[in-house]
Amino acid sequence: MSRVLIAGESWVTHSTHIKGMDTFTTSSYEVGVEQLRRALEGRGHEVRHLPAHLVPMEFPDDERALSQYDVVVVSDIGANSIQLAPGVFERARPGADRLAALRAWVGEGGGLLMIGGYLSFTGFEGKAAYRNTVLHDVLPVELLAEDDRVELPAGAQATVALPGHPALGGLDSAPWPHLLGYNRVLARPGSTTLATVNGDPLVVVGEHGNGRSAAFTSDCSPHWAPTAFCEDWSGYGQIFGGLIEWLAR
């Protein structure tokens, strides 16, 4: 059993409704982690979800706090939310560099997985912004300087390059359900690309110091990961379970 921290994968939607002369607003809170949580817990892993609105306040500050986990998953949460604790951003007080702590923790033997989304890798309009941080050095992929999203409305299937690799959890080269988008990245020299989509890296793994890192460049929930992929397909649990188990050694 591995102890897994998943940071991100939640959001608040605020809508304005206009009906003739009148308007009103509604808001909703949504979570996109449940498919991933179920898949990992189904393989015996202990999962803590840190929602996006709590990341600035509660993301682990140092290697000691990170050491209670075997793997940290960063999914659809930008670099600002991890770096800028309220004391730093709102009160201009120096604080911990949490991305530097995460990099050091991986170097000492931790496991890091980044999953794609609008606020992963470089992200929508460049707003995820990991390319400009020290965490870029840890990832097994190199990030683009511009908006890196690739939308695939008609869908595209993954191509498995190394079906026997343990990080794929036993999946063979049988066709995967279609994906509807991903973040475009470049495989870093020395990393291993396990699967591609649309000719670009989809699953990439690598080493960093004594630790390991991995990238899954599509999403773990809609819209890029439709229900046929993340709910109806047994291979979903194999992929993410395999990645977590490989990262945790």
UniProtKB/TrEMBL annotation:
<dbReference type="Pfam" id="PF07090">
    <property type="entry name" value="GATase1_like"/>
</dbReference>
<feature type="domain" description="Putative glutamine amidotransferase">
    <location>
        <begin position="3"/>
        <end position="248"/>
    </location>
</feature>
<dbReference type="InterPro" id="IPR029062">
    <property type="entry name" value="Class_I_gatase-like"/>
</dbReference>
<dbReference type="InterPro" id="IPR010768">
    <property type="entry name" value="GATase1-like"/>
</dbReference>
<protein>
    <submittedName>
        <fullName>Putative membrane protein</fullName>
    </submittedName>
</protein>
